[in-house]
Amino acid sequence: MKKLQLFIDGNFVDGKAGWFDNVNPVNGKIVSQVAHANADDVDAAVKAGKKALEGEWGRLSLQERGTLLSKVADRINERFDAFLAAEIEDTGKPKGLASAIDIPRGAANFQIFADQARSFGSESFMQSTPDGKGALHYVQRMPLGVVGVICPWNLPLLLMTWKVAPALAAGNTVVVKPSEETPSTATLLAEVMSEILPPGVFNLVHGFGPGSAGEAITNHPDISAITFTGESSTGEAIMKRAAEGMKAVSFELGGKNPAIIFADADFDKALAGTMRSVFANCGQVCLCSERVYVQRPIFERFVAALKHGAEKLVPGDPYDENTSFGPLISKQHREKVLSYYALALEEGATLVSGGGVPHFSNDFDEGFFVEPTIWTGLSEDARVVKEEIFGPVCHIQVFDDEDEVIKMANNSEYGLAAAVWTENISRAHRVSQQLETGIVWVNDWFLRDLRTPFGGVKRSGLGREGGIYSLNFYSELKNICIKL
Ligand code: NAD
Ligand code: 6OD
């Protein structure tokens, strides 16, 4: 059985809390044993991070750090197939998806922040003074220190590197905890880091949240900042702990995202885009649309077309090119999603499609698959319409006019992303500007430019990451004033 170790101070080591199982969601089989870190392991990782800040790493110029991060990007690309296999084994996602999104973004995240590090400038201000000689102020960007990076399981490499790369570009060291469900690509990344970075700059601890490595990171007095992606309630728990010691936090949290399809949309493009935004990665993307609003003249046609699309999705072997639909991440998550399938019917939904589990007559029956599921007919107050399910689901609601749909879209405790489909450019601007979300896509979904601010409002997050916004979070600014 494969063993995945911790990586602390440049060494692969066992965890002091023993081992836990890593399960393949395609068939429920255990594929590796993972070293379980306790608070002492986390403490060793933090100490290594502090030591590295005082050593060679702390003395590198931005340009030199940029060069090292470029090498990390290159190495991920060179080991593409190993990363791909590891991501597929942990998540069961189709090979086409992982090779188009997860692994390339893992490399791209390092490349963009390598480029940013190389081109990083700093502001200066000239001040006039009573003696007429003036003063020059300039801004120095300093690292925060040791940054705790806590990650989810849905896009494991993508979301981990999205935070590790800018943290390192800004000169910090990191203690990373991937999700307990997806430890493999993080372990491969540690192998890459061991070839390129000084010991202690990248430290990896495996484990769970409460009472385990995650909580130990949030409690550690020498962690300066925590960057976290995951559920909103976990973000709230982390924030309470981070208050002690005044740790900076950056949170990318849950969503209950609306997709709004106007009757003037390009129907086929809106349909294809909504198929992706509802069902991509089995609905396990924080940006997925679980609330779909369709304008009355095209409502019936759109519902029928989405049903047709959902029923053509093929679940199964991630390596089979015909497979377009993977499993949910775990047995526990499947139970949660299936509980919403039952709840939707209790709440009076009309089941348009799915609602059950697919059958295979092979060991995939032991995996964590569910059917893509569409409902209509619920009120906006139904729990299924309000709560994040994080599965391949949507409820489709009819609407008549802009004001009505904006009100419904904004009637959520979340505010991460929205998709708007219309061919009317004025409407596109008008509606986008009124939506209470961190991101609005018009006539597309999950189209990313890594320089743009990414994050959510309300319970969907705190702060923005991406390009300079990431570097602002991961650096401490110092004003130096030189009296001339
Ligand atoms: P989760 O909150 O259960 O776990 C995320 C990570 O936090 C894991 O590594 C877990 O071990 C750790 N953790 C859990 N409790 C902790 C605690 N008390 N202290 C410290 N660490 C703790 O989330 P998940 O189930 O892994 O991911 C799915 C959720 O993530 C969904 O809600 C989804 O919307 C959200 N998400 C958001 C974004 C975004 O960009 N906004 C991106 C991806 C996922
Ligand atoms: O694309 C990104 O940078 C990003 N943070 C995506 C988040 C996806 C959520 O599951």
Characterise the protein shown here:
The chain is built from 16 helices and 23 strands. The strands form six sheets. Strands 15-16-17-14-13-19-20 form a seven-stranded mixed sheet, with helices on both faces. Strands 10-9-8-11-12-22 form a six-stranded mixed sheet, with helices on both faces. The chain has a three-stranded mixed sheet with strand order 1-5-4, with helices on one face. 40% of the residues lie in helices and 23% in strands. The model has no long low-confidence stretch (mean pLDDT 97). Helix 3 crosses helix 7 (184-196), helix 4 packs across helix 5 (95-119) and helix 5 (95-119) packs parallel to helix 6 (156-169). Strand 6 and strand 7 form a beta hairpin. The protein is globular and about 70 Å long. The chain has 484 residues and is α/β, with parallel strands linked by helices. Bound molecules: nicotinamide-adenine-dinucleotide and (2E,4E)-2-amino-6-oxohexa-2,4-dienoic acid (6OD). (2E,4E)-2-amino-6-oxohexa-2,4-dienoic acid (6OD) binds next to helix 6.
